[in-house]
Amino acid sequence: MSRLKNFRQTETLAELGRLRTELSSWLKRKKYADARGQYTTQLAVLERELCDAIEALSQWVARDFSAANTGEVFRQLAMDDRRIIWIRDAWNFYRQKFDQREVEELKTVLSAADEVLWSCYKPFFGGRAIPPAPLCCIDSSYVPGSIRPDQARHQLGRTTETDTGVLAPFFQTLPIPILRLPPSVASSPWLLALIGHETGHFLLRLLPRALDLLKEQIEKAVGQCCGSDDDKAAWRNCAEEIFCDFYFALAVGPWAVWALAPWTLGPDAAMLTRDRYYPAPLARLRLIAVAAEALGLAGAEALRASSSGRLGPAAFPTRPSWTYASPSRSGGSLPSPCRTERAACSTASSSVRAISRRTESWTGGRPRCRGTRSVRTTTTCARPGLCAPRR
Questions:
Q1: Rounded CA separation 265/285 (Å)
Q2: pLDDT in tens, 43-59
Q3: 310 vs 211 pLDDT, higher one
Q4: Strand, coil or helix: what is 137?
Q5: How far apart, in whole angstroms, are the C-alpha atoms of residue 245 and residue 239?
Q6: 129-145 in b/e burial notation, b at 16+ Cβ within 10 A?
Q7: How far is CA 358 from the centre of its chain?
Q8: pTM, whole model, 2 decimals?
């Protein structure tokens, strides 16, 4: 192979070596700082994915170019350089989130967030093997949000260089899910209770039939109240968020109502307006309160207290004249809209018990929801040292 081709190949290999050295140094520092082993599983899966990708690319770059012309060698190695940058970007996607725990203004609230999430996440599995827990981070979002493993393409920006060739097998899914938190949790740590809802999004993927079963129950309940096909479709669209609210009640108890109310209360018209994927705020609060009651918790009491009585029985009109706004239509009358909402609430009782039973069959026993106490104490104290060893 000519000296020019050899020199160009050496450049790419050197850049790969630099990336490997930087990654090794960062992982060593993170493991040393993780004295209690909180992030052992997360760091291990990230290290395996990154190191395997670097090793595969190194072997590919070191291939024999003696039979290729110089222009083709430069073109192929330029593509490999872009692959190196993509591996670095995938690492940075996680590095920035891990490194937030070194920021003085954020480390305390993230320590509390990790504790709340683990309290909501771990009971689901009982004594079974636990996949890597989501990684909490502060993000420029107004409300908490989840980034699931199946969203790798959108989050990591896969391109032609990564979708084909040597890196195609890597980062097909995110090795660690992400739980995004709004910046306001640093000054209002009690908002961390909302993690209970987001945890439901991650766990729902481990129950393949749960969402379909809940959709069937919801559609049946709406049909029994003379709801139209449009109403059935609208409520089916809300099934995932309803499931997560049910798990919210299961993991956090009546505190779920207290945490959710500030995000949903608004003018009367807004309280009756259904979003594309969420029930009307009024119905949503009633649903989660009934779900808590179905678990033997004081959901109704929490609902009355958090809303100053505004959302009691009087909030449901008895005449069939409610009009709902939705993204797909400006409005429409149901034969008895309040009955539709009440039917969905009654569905909560049976559905949340079904979720609880399904969780029991998964874990071998009903999860002892440490979350209720943990959320109450952690989010009101939010001080360092709350996170117990988790791995």
A1: 9
A2: 999 999 999 999 999 99
A3: 211
A4: strand
A5: 10
A6: eebbbbbbbbbeeeebe
A7: 20
A8: 0.77
